[in-house]
Design goal:
mainly beta; five-stranded antiparallel β-sheet; 9 strands; about 40% strand; globular; Phage_VT1-Sakai_H0018
């Protein structure tokens, strides 16, 4: 197949702002976790699929299997309205807690 480029689970993209390794990043409709640090204008590899421990809305309890959404402010929440679905909670997270375990499925929404 001459037109095949790559699997797409890891994408190298140019950052519009500085990012740190492990940070959840949105580039347009693409969401992934930065594999390394990058300054504004530099390239970084975004991992689009897998299970990650990510910052969540602290005052919210999550249950395993709950859909997880990214807000325009960059917070993770289980509130669907006005937010972008990025994956599901892999395990329960208490209220309050700062971190939730999330399965990113790599889908573009």
């Amino acid at each position: 197949m001459k037109n095949y480029v790559q699997p797409g689970e890891h994408l190298t993209l140019t950052m519009a702002a500085a990012v740190v390794s492990g940070q959840l990043v949105r580039v347009g409709s693409i969401v992934g976790v930065a594999q390394g640090n990058a300054a504004e204008g530099e390239d970084v590899v975004l991992v689009r699929r897998g299970v990650f421990d990510l910052p969540k809305t602290a005052a919210q309890a999550w249950t395993a299997g709950a859909k997880v959404y990214l807000t325009t402010e960059g917070d993770l929440t289980t509130t669907a309205s006005g937010n972008t679905l990025i994956g599901v909670a892999v395990e329960a997270a208490a209220n309050p807690s700062a971190i939730g375990r999330v399965l990113l499925d790599g889908a573009i929404r």
